[in-house]
């Protein structure tokens, strides 16, 4: 797949139908990466709908309001976790789709920067096929800001833009994990928990930037976005399906 190191190889698609729990879901991606780096796992795409989670960045934990922010998450029914990647707090729940792309790669570091742009465009393309006016780039005031975030524009109001996809990457010797979260449905709980936790952390942001794809395209749901994503991926790699049990979670 372009400069990601996959070429035209087969990509195994695994749907995880049930969350393993917020913490276990996060750790399992790292376990798959550990397998890939040793050659025990080939190129794999893991798709799942997560339990309500707020993933804080390492920097967040050093702020004086971190414990209050974590409690705000629990009060809103979200489990607070700390991810190993950078960035600020990001929230997700069953109205989102998590996409973990794991690859063995002997030169994993070389493509780490370009991977963000490549996958950002891939996700934006997938969202455009289901009617979202999607583009890559940070929008003013967004939560967990990133140069390669994917945002959507309200067709009725071009001044209204919302963040729809956040990405993070873990690179090790011999492989990489590129993890993305697409917010598709039910944005209100995400906006609420981020408002409360960012206030506790003392971080400024614009809550209007927290939204979901179906805020922009009414009726859109996770299965439709998942199908669009796989159809877009199919233009870049040969896809084959495998059962989640084959990963031995």
TrEMBL record:
<dbReference type="Pfam" id="PF21948">
    <property type="entry name" value="LplA-B_cat"/>
</dbReference>
<feature type="domain" description="BPL/LPL catalytic">
    <location>
        <begin position="39"/>
        <end position="241"/>
    </location>
</feature>
<dbReference type="InterPro" id="IPR004143">
    <property type="entry name" value="BPL_LPL_catalytic"/>
</dbReference>
<dbReference type="InterPro" id="IPR045864">
    <property type="entry name" value="aa-tRNA-synth_II/BPL/LPL"/>
</dbReference>
<protein>
    <recommendedName>
        <fullName>BPL/LPL catalytic domain-containing protein</fullName>
    </recommendedName>
</protein>
């Amino acid at each position: 797949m372009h400069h990601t190191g996959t070429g035209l190889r087969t990509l195994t698609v695994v749907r995880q139908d049930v969350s393993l729990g917020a913490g276990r879901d996060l750790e399992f991606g790292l376990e798959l990466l550990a397998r890939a780096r040793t050659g025990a796992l080939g190129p794999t795409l893991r798709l799942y709908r997560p339990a309500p989670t707020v993933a804080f960045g390492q920097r967040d934990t050093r702020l004086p309001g971190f414990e209050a922010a974590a409690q705000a998450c629990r009060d809103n029914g979200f489990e607070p976790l700390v991810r190993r990647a950078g960035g600020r707090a990001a929230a997700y729940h069953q109205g989102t789709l998590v996409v973990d792309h794991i690859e063995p790669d002997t030169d994993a570091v070389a493509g780490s920067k370009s991977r963000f742009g490549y996958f950002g465009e891939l996700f934006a393309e997938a969202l455009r096929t289901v009617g979202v006016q999607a583009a890559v780039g940070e929008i003013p005031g967004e939560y967990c800001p990133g140069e390669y975030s994917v945002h959507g524009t309200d067709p009725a109001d071009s001044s209204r833009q919302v963040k729809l996809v956040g990405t993070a990457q873990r690179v090790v010797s011999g492989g990489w994990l590129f993890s993305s979260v697409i917010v598709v449905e039910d944005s209100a709980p995400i906006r609420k928990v981020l408002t409360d936790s960012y206030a506790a952390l003392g971080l400024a942001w614009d809550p209007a930037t927290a939204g979901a794809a179906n805020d922009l395209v009414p009726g859109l749901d996770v299965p439709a976005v998942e199908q669009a994503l796989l159809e877009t991926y199919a233009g870049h790699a040969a896809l084959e399906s495998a059962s989640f049990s084959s990963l031995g979670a």
